[in-house]
Amino acid sequence: MVNKPHLLVRQLRFSRHELMRCIEGITPEEAEKRMGQMNSISWIVGHLGGQEHGLWVTSQGRSVAPELAACGYGKPPSTPPLEKVLVAWRRTTAAADEFLDTLTPEKMTEYLEGEGWRSAENIGTLLMRNIMHYWFHLGEAHAIRQIMGHQNLPDFVGNMSACVYEPE
Fold it and tell me: pLDDT value at position 162?
């Protein structure tokens, strides 16, 4: 294990924390409601977990939450139970962290590979894509909550002290 996780890993963890901050106080019924063409918040949680599962867990030859595939890109809209997707998301992020904690600046330039496949982007770029994906859907989830009439939502990015910029 690396003494201190890579900055991008810390940023991903911060993004995860912001997702949990975003859904704080939402009821299961609200999380599972679709607003017009927008996804349900429970789907968003499952979708982000599904991306992490594919990038950081199944790429390592493991599977801890195959049920998240139902929230994949291009799948029919769904409203999975929030508690179930949170359990799968937590299981996935814990498994993903086992791999992410091994990343060094040198490993960031490598490609994920398996039997008959190789990622199109290096690990560092995939990690940045994963972070940006969180923020894309964080905005969507906040918009959904605003449409639902929720008050006193976070209106600023949270405390970034856990992922302060440091040169490599």
Answer: 76
Tell me: pLDDT of 102 over 60.
yes
**How far apart, in Å, do the first and last CA atoms of the chain sit?**
17
- Strand residues in 5-135 grouped as ranges (E): 111-114, 117-122
**pLDDT recorded at residue 160:** 85
- 122 has which bridge partners? 111
Which CATH number belongs to the domain containing residue 81 in this structure?
1.20.120.450
Q: Could you give the C-alpha distances from 39 to 122, 126, 129, 138, in angstroms and in order?
A: 29, 23, 20, 12
Question: How many domains does the chain divide into?
Answer: 1
Which of 81, 96, 97 is closest to 46 using CA atoms? 81
- Indicate whether 165 belongs to any domain: no
Calpha distance 22→146 (Å, rounded): 11
d(CA 37, CA 14): 28
